[in-house]
Amino acid sequence: MAHDHDHDHDHRHTHSHAGTDIDWAEMADHLESQAELFAPLYENALNWLGKEVTEPGLIVDAGSGPGVVSCLFAEAFPGARVLAVDGSAPLLDRALARAERRGVGDRFGVLAGELPGVLDELDYPADLLWAGNALHHLGDQRAALTAFGERLAPGGTLAILEGGLPSRFLPRDIGIGRPGLQARLDALQEEWFEQMRTDLPGSVAEAEDWPTLLNSAGLKHTRSRSFLIDLPAPASARARAYAAEQLSRFRDTVAEGLATDDRATLGRLLDPADPASVHRRPDVFVLGARTVHTAVRPA
Description:
It is a single chain. The protein has helices spanning 8-11, 28-37, 39-50, 68-76, 89-101, 141-150, 181-199, 210-216, 237-254, 260-269, and strands spanning 58-62, 81-86, 108-112, 126-132, 152-168, 220-231, 286-296. It is an alpha/beta fold. Strands 3-2-1-4-5-7-6 form a seven-stranded mixed sheet, sandwiched between helices. α2 crosses α9 and α3 packs parallel to α4. The radius of gyration is 19 Å and the shape is globular. The model is unreliable at 2-18 (pLDDT under 50).
């Protein structure tokens, strides 16, 4: 499982093909580039966490993917050992290589296996356990939160990134097709996401009241805060690439649910030769919000 990406799958809900099974290793480049684009958002979240979590000894990134956020943790908490945990060994190889490139390899390790059970293999309890857009890929989220909490040291903090607002990268009226295309894509993505949840092994429907769920896992002192990614037009090459990747994944996962005219508009937006495409138009931006929820294991 790999979630540096902005569960946009948008963050939250985009994947590489029309089914609900996800080949995370296949998505490695996308996961890495998206997390790098969203690095300012993650850095702000880590600064916020650092005001409560002081001098952690062990930080666990559960569902780390290629390790972009794991390495940000290692840089933000220079006294901590960071363990990236993921079900995809190829992504963990990337995480290790990234840690070496960023000069934090001496404090960086990986653990391969499926969440939450693989956390039983931790040698020490975590002072901070981060799960960024990983929880919603586990069938029984309530049980997973309980398992996460049990891997914390007394006084340790669990931080989950879940929810927020879907990323937008185009105005409501883009001058071609009917206005509101992204809103219609968002609605279809929500349907896709619900089907993905339903298809998970052991799936349990759960109201997404994260503070209440954290309390039910025996954790206390819940907090929530949302963080913004705001990259205004004119977009950088990386932001344009992100918009194109997101639209491509919309096309591959949900475009059959669009009206014919919307599919035609989507085709134009993805055609690099078209002046109206996201590759060339001047009004492309990236704007979104991600929400972090934290709670503490009683000492």
